[in-house]
Amino acid sequence: MNRPVAAATLEPIPCAAPAADAIDSLRVQDLDLNLLKTFRAVYVERHVGRAALRLGVTQPSVSHGLGRLRLMFRDALFVRTGTGVEPTPRARRLAASVDKALAILQDVLDEGARFLPDTTQRVFRLHMSDFAASAFLPTLLQVLDARAPGAVIETLHVDEPQLNVALETGRIDFALGHYSDASSHFQRAALLRESCVLLMSRRAAARLALRDDFVLDANAPPNLRLVAVASHPQSMQLVDRHGLMPRVRAALPGFMAIPAILRDCDHAVIVPRTIARTFAARDACATYPIAGAQAWTVNAYWHRRFDADPGHRWLRALLSELFDIGTREAFDAWLAPVAPPASCAPRTDRD
């Protein structure tokens, strides 16, 4: 008759016996990640030597780690058999909790190391003017709906003197615009080239009898009346350069009121080309070039301390994909005169 294997044949793995006061002095803060990894490796491999190979450490290192674990849990945890080691009942109960703890830690590490656009709920905070919002948001939101449906764009207005601090502290992720005083700590990516044009309703152009080749300069028709966008420096510089301030009948804080003014009044306004394209495609209006109108670059700015942020990197790549001026052909296209749509072209003496 076979005799059952005596419990004494399962021997604890030898290790130095802890001092009695050492057991009471150990707390959670004494447990490091390597101990949990050691426990899991021995539990999976059922062999100290193979656990050492799995971890890439020496066998004495694994034995030392097991000794520290025994102090923490006050249990032998693993006992020696003829083929390796077997977990004690306490170790079997601990195994699921250790796996869960390691999985939680891995999730924390993965959150900082990767960005999953299809599941993200991240809020990206962008500083931009209403001009920049008109230029970028329609396309950006359409693409986000397809690629990152849970992502949110929050637009904030930050006074230009405060932009440096807002970007450095992460209050905003990006500033979209043209800022000559941007800090040297900022990175930038060129998104598009802009220049100003003259925009007016088709009705106003007909009353002024403007030809298709009209160019705004200091010799503008005497009955041309302007509305200025005081918050847009490039527009105001052209008004000053051509001595057109006496023609200005109103100064606006932004571009929001322009459609209503073009619809109900015969005034003209100097606006960035992107704004003009938007209105020309939607309303009965015409656009004309301006003498001496210089192009400027609209950039995305961010602080270099966020260079490695995965979400930051993803949105930067998306902005570059959608708006990067890229090739010389794209550059030339932005600088080319805006031809009014056939339905918006003003009537002239040749009509």
UniProtKB/TrEMBL annotation:
It holds the Pfam family LysR_substrate. SUPFAM superfamilies: Periplasmic binding protein-like II, Winged helix' DNA-binding domain. InterPro entries: LysR-type_TF, LysR_HTH_N, LysR_subst-bd, WH-like_DNA-bd_sf, WH_DNA-bd_sf. One of its GO terms (molecular function) is DNA-binding transcription factor activity. It comes from Burkholderia thailandensis. Keywords: DNA-binding, Transcription, Transcription regulation. This is LysR substrate binding domain protein. Residues 31-88 form the HTH lysR-type domain. It comes from the Bacteria. Belongs to the LysR transcriptional regulatory family.
